[in-house]
Amino acid sequence: MRALGLVLVALSLNLLVVAAVSEREYPTKSDVKQWVDPATPDSAQQITTSRGETWELVMSDEFNTANRSFRPGDDHLWTSIEKPDGVNGALEVYSHNMTSTKCDDDGTCYLYIKAVDEVSKLTVYNAYLSPARYQNVTFYYRAGMVQSWNKFCYQGGLIEVRAQLPGAVSKESGNPDISLSKSGRVASSSYYPTWPGIWMMGNLGRAIFSASTSRMWPFSYNKCEPDVFDPRNQRISACDDDPGYGLNKNQGRGAPEIDILEGGGVAISSSLQIAPGMPSDFRLYPAQEDYDSANMYCVYKYDCKTPGANYVDVPTAYYEKKRGHKSWYQGLRYAANNFCEPSEDEIQDVDTIKASLEAGITDNVCNVDTCPASSDANSDLALIDGVGPDYWGINSNGTCFPVMNSYMGAYLCDPDNTDELCPEPRNSSTPKTEIMEPFGYQMDAVSANWPVHLGAYTDYFVYQVEWVTGTNGYVRWMGAGQPLFEVTADAFSVVPQNANKTNPQKLMLEEPMSIVFNVALSRSWGATPPNPGSECRGDGTNETVNKICDDFPLYLKIDYIRVYQDPKGNRGDDDYMQLGCDPGSHPTKQWIEGHIDEYEDSDNLWMEVTGRAFCESDDDCTISNNGAQKLVTGKCVKSRCVCSHPDSWGGPRCTLALAEDSSSTSVSMTQRTYGPPMAISLSVAIVTLLSTVIAAWMSVRTLKRQAEAAILAAEQKKLEQVRPSFPTRVNISIDEYDTPQPKDNYSQNFL
């Protein structure tokens, strides 16, 4: 008996040690990965990167099951939004019922986001009115947004999305482009009235919840340099010795953005959005009334008469004389969309362009013989990937070519800001609202607009972004494996400077990013619906407009999404390659929990989902026991994982051993979990094994009863504990959404 007592004491000590361990992910019995869809074909389990490395699949969703619900609590990966869009002159309300999955008769299955012309009148709170107040707003469209926010995030990797963009392309639409082949260049912009987006944002911000993004979006800045940038403008600053909420001290944080694609019409925008942005004397010159009073938006058509207002550092001598230093980001890389039909008039020769740049561009405009095809005079002109045969920035085939976006960012301000750089500075006669913390800062959009072929609207096309963090990092955009645009870390760290060195150096983006799909409509973007700011058909007398409006609903379709990472994981001190929304390098969990009201409203509650990953057998939903006593942590029920003990075992496949809640003060594993946690399960298994040797002292049945008693005691103990004030894990059935939900008055997070 003394020997057995020593064993039990050792096991008890083991429980105390394990109690200090955080959440841990265990492999599944079938070896399917936590976030990988079992339906992903074997041929897609690995990919070769642009640098020749082999990366492995770490996340996928093939959308092969019809009628999925993405309402809060229903899906392991995605959450739909029920909320009016309050940014960029938006015309749509996002709704849960505008997105689901569908399978066509030919067997193609996909996630869809639907946009319909439907009028909604809502009362919203506008913090930027003076005084801030509720206002009645009419939205003329209803569409959808789906997010992986706070569920699936990644740092570094290759993301691949096969998608079909929304457009009025039916035979009845009257769209003249549909007579073209799939490689024909889209030309009739009015037939592509929506603004689809496939993008990522740092998990510290939640898309269209503006309270969460204020002074957070789109920072990628980790310096404490008050003489260069006022740290009060960055909510989590590197100047903060004690930021709290589990954050790392003196680490600048934010919610930067990577747009895989954004926009519609004749061109797609691929961009990074970061802050702090470059000061005015490193930016494109604005149009001046003395030259362009009748055409102040000439910058978007590259036809300004104002010197230096069409392209950065063009004319060369003008910029050199006025500034004495380079402007904007250097060495950006552009390459052709070769899926477009070529045009002989656009073919370039690299030697001609290099000679023009060396001599200096004298005109206020670019042409095919004077500037790189991107119209970026500071772009990289080296051989693509060092091997060619094509050069960055040179349209050697005459196909569609990305152009540097004229939209370079915005100056963001609180409503009380009087800075003349603000879009609407407060005048001296207007009283302060004092509704939010003061701020005023420039954000930058580093962006390329690439002309698109008709096949992007009539068929599926593969969009890819390859992202590596750190000093040697980069972001590369690709179409079906062919490069389109690339930004290297040097573009952010080796920036042009003036004598006072006032241009802040940023980081290559390194925040854990969540993924967003959405379809928006706006009165102010390059692609707008008919009669923007009113109902689609207007007075109904324009037959062309009526045909476009009759083509609604329009659909963004996602055939699949896949994410790949280097199997070696993190590859250096700043070269992160990992999954998770709350990594130790960039924590987010406690911050979000401590500010949860900024990330949710009554229609969009944060609900962490346990289980629900797609499965083919029970082995996809339970841990591998490696020969120990069998422990079933979950089962496959109707092709979705259901966790057997959801308060002890979570994650999409029930293989995540859950840690103690931060509010708990208990000291043993049995006191802080329901169900059999990993420590108890393994310990009981060990004791059971020993009992075969010391059967004279104790039977297996006795041990089992003791373990069960400990588990039941833990359940009772946890029920008696005071719950934290912020939401924790919520397990919800899809059927629970049959009851009506309260409508939010959108008193927060609209503008």
TrEMBL record:
Claim: Membrane is one of the keywords in the record: yes
Pfam families according to UniProt: SKN1_KRE6_Sbg1 (PF03935)
Location within or outside the cell: Membrane
Keyword Transmembrane: yes
UniProt-listed GO biological process terms: (1->6)-beta-D-glucan biosynthetic process; cell wall organization
Domain of life: Eukaryota
Broad class of where this protein is predominantly found: membrane
GO MF, one example: glucosidase activity
Entry GO CC: endoplasmic reticulum membrane; plasma membrane
Keywords of this entry: Cell wall biogenesis/degradation, Glycoprotein, Membrane, Signal, Transmembrane, Transmembrane helix
TM segment ranges: 678-698
Signal peptide: 1-19
Entry coiled-coil feature ranges: none
Protein name: Beta-glucan synthesis-associated protein
